[in-house]
Amino acid sequence: MHKESDISCSGRTPLFHAEENCFENQHEAEDNTACKHVGRRSMSFSSSTESGHDSGTVISYHNICYSINTKVKGVNTKKQIIKNLSGIMQPGLNAILGPTGSGKTTLLDILAGRKDRKYLSGHVLVNGVKQPNNFKCITGYVVQEDVVMGTLTVRENLHFSAALRLPGKLSKRERKERVEATLSDLGLFHVAESKVGNEFIRGISGGERKRTNIGMELIMSPSVLFLDEPTTGLDASTAVSVIRLLQGLGRRGNTVIMSIHQPRYSIFKMFDTISLLSVGEFVYQGPASEAIKYFEDIGYMCEEHNNPADFFMDVIFDSEAAQRHALSDSSETTVLSMEEGLASLKLHLSELYKNSEHARTIIQTTQPILEEFSTSLRTVRFSKEQETTYVTSFFSQLTTVSGRAVKNIIRNPQTSILQ
């Protein structure tokens, strides 16, 4: 067990402080003023992070479409999941919001290079060049379900990730230092020697478990971190602490991109930008602090103490609720009647966004990037010189995974019972 004084090994300010519940009362107060104060902070697409970083990894995507093959009454057909989306993700905390089935996880996976390209059209560019085939080798991706081994300690799980993902040329001492620095950043020193836990072994808390998952990706110091609904299964206070950690990463200059369903206000206000999806199309994309004003301008008013995320879901997913949020007939925008149906409402919202100033800003930002890419020879140079490969050999990976499997068998109570 390490004392607090040991945390200085990384030489950096920790991203997370161990007092996980210290924000709880503060958050309750903040939630009571949700829509009233959402406009305090702004981040434009031409800037980077609040802390003044002017460099980092920028992911731009241009005219992205993604379809899958499906059967409808025995007839093969194509279903379009993502519909001609363009946008940009800069250093900071970027959230993709939307109801279930809106395509937010699909968009996240496309940006992370985790979707089959034969179903994909358009361009995903990383700092203005083509996304490499093995882009996932140099970025972090935290899946919704845990990938940690419950029979191993927190430190052992991080060492496992380091053995697989750090270059073989690094010495054991350097790998150990990287693990210790990650433990420091995530505020996990006090549980470093505790087993993560499973259904048979009592382990660490849900928030500590989630931070361990994030740490397994941070061990390689990726400039881009993707997360699929990182607050799923966490209580309110723990969820806030995890997002605060991600906000800290964004302020350091990392590009953090996450999907999330319906966050509370204390989480929502930490986002730098949001991309709000409905059935594969944007209904808003821009600074999180300007979203409420945008919806007010097109005819939907968020009540003073309503959570912005709840308000957005009401508007884009519930035509009856949308009527309750609609402004009077004096508004410049005519709100659709309930009889026109939810599908018409979603189309209406996406068309309003396409004609908005926010959409024009996105086009003005992304179009020069695409034009420069199209008129250059970067694609050829990239494929020959910069193709990303795995940093460890197959034999090294096999040895590491086998070693973990043996430890799991020895420590698993189920194994003892069977014996």
Structure description:
There is one protein chain. With 419 residues, this protein is α/β, with parallel strands linked by helices. It has 15 helices and ten strands. It has helices at 24-31, 104-111, 154-165, 172-185, 206-218, 236-251, 265-268, 291-297, 308-317, 319-325, 341-354, 357-374, 378-385, 394-411, 413-418; strands spanning 59-72, 75-89, 92-97, 120-126, 129-130, 140-142, 224-228, 255-260, 273-278, 281-287. It has a six-stranded mixed sheet with strand order 6-7-8-3-9-10, with helices on both faces. The longest helix has 18 residues, at 357-374. It starts with 23 loop residues before the first helix and ends with a helix. The model is unreliable at 1-10, 18-30, 39-54, 328-341 and 378-385 (pLDDT under 50). Keywords: ATP-binding, Membrane, Nucleotide-binding, Transmembrane, Transmembrane helix, Transport. Residues 59-304 form the ABC transporter domain. It comes from Desmophyllum pertusum. Its main location: membrane. Belongs to the ABC transporter superfamily. ABCG family. Eye pigment precursor importer (TC 3.A.1.204) subfamily.
Give the tags:
419 residues, alpha/beta, four-stranded antiparallel β-sheet, 17% strand, globular, disordered N terminus
* Quaternary organization: single chain
Helix/sheet category: alpha/beta
Order of SSEs: HEEEHEEEHHHEHEHEEHHHHHHHH
Roughly what is the average pLDDT, rounded to an integer? 80
Total of DSSP H or I helical runs spanning 4+ residues: 15
Proportion of beta-strand residues: 15-25%
From the alpha carbons, calculate the radius of gyration and give it in angstroms. Answer: 23 Å
Low-confidence stretches: 1-10, 18-30, 39-54, 328-341, 378-385
Tally of strands:
10
GO molecular function, one term: ATP binding
Protein name: ATP-binding cassette sub- G member 2
Family: Belongs to the ABC transporter superfamily. ABCG family. Eye pigment precursor importer (TC 3.A.1.204) subfamily.
Organism: Desmophyllum pertusum
